[in-house]
Amino acid sequence: MASAASSGEQCHGYTPMPSIATFLGTELSYSTAQRICCNNHKYAEYSGYLAAPEVDLFGKLDPQKETVFYDSVCGIPLFIAPRGRSFEEFKEESLKHGWPSFRPEELVSENVIIHGDGRMESRCLTHLGHNLPEGGVDRYCIDLVCMAGTPFAVDSDDERAKILTMVDEMVIDHHELNTTSYKSSAESFSGKYNDWSSKLTIIGVVCAAALVAAGMIAYLVSAKKGKADKKCKEVEPQGTEDVMDVDLS
Fold first, then answer.
1. 3-class SS shares of the chain: helix, strand, coil, % to 5
2. CA distances in angstroms from 211 to 201, 218, 223, listed in the order given
3. Where are the beta strands (DSSP E) in the chain?
4. Per the confidence metrics, is the pTM higher than 0.90?
């Protein structure tokens, strides 16, 4: 049962719709959806979940037509796929990475927010996944449980339908979406992603520089100590000779 909504709260305080548990004839985990979509900004369903025996996403999709994927909480359209590529390409990329993977052409751009660090959420504040560019083009790695909803009817008495009165006016609901004429305004490469590879490279360079600096300091200290020892060794014989030259009789 949905809880009372409050603007700004993830999923506006609501929970995923119960129907996601049987999305397209699959058996999705409702508890996973509740945890990942409405109580999380970081974690994801496990890799390969879309191909689990009880799910088999691509075995449930019609390869001859595009599928519209809807928000699991408020039912707004999020992705239309495959678009600009074949069904097999869509399937291959998704299975390769372990999560449904979409490209800019397939994004209903008015309904999805891509944050600077690549985190993605719907305009209903449902967590979706992350942008992980590949080949110089944005690739949206999305949790299946968060895009397994169905659109609400105009006269729906579901409490979650109230979310639609809280979202930005730019949001397109399923009644307004004409899949034949719709064209996404998403950028091919938004530059919005968490570039861990670059960060690791920078960290590696800094660590290497620190090690080199530490090595140089150690060398200089050792060299200085070596010179001091040499000086002591040069002075010591002179002192010994001086002592030996003293007449002790």
1. 40, 10, 45
2. 15, 10, 18
3. 67-70, 77-81, 101-102, 112-114, 119-122, 127-131, 140-142
4. no
Structure confidence at residue 204 as a pLDDT band (50, 70, 90):
low
Give me the DSSP letters along 47-79. TTGGGSTTT-HHHHS-TTS-EEEE-TTT--EEE
Integer Cα distance of 128 and 126 in angstroms: 6
Q: Per-residue pLDDT tens for 94-140?
A: 999 999 999 999 999 999 999 999 999 999 999 999 999 999 999 99
State the Cα–Cα distance between residues 85 and 95, nearest whole angstrom.
Answer: 15
Give the length of the chain: 249
Widest pairwise Cα distance in the chain: 124
Residue 116 is encoded by which pair of tokens? 């600077």
Tell me how far CA of residue 104 lies from CA of 138, 158, 244, in angstroms.
7, 31, 91
pLDDT in tens, 5-40: 444 799 999 999 999 999 999 999 999 999 999 999
The C-alpha angle 142, 146, 152, rounded to 5 degrees, equals 130
Query: Beta strands 112-114 and 127-131: pairing type?
Result: unpaired
**Contact between 27 and 54 (Cβ < 8 Å):** yes
The partner residues of 70 in beta bridges, in order of sequence, read 77, 149
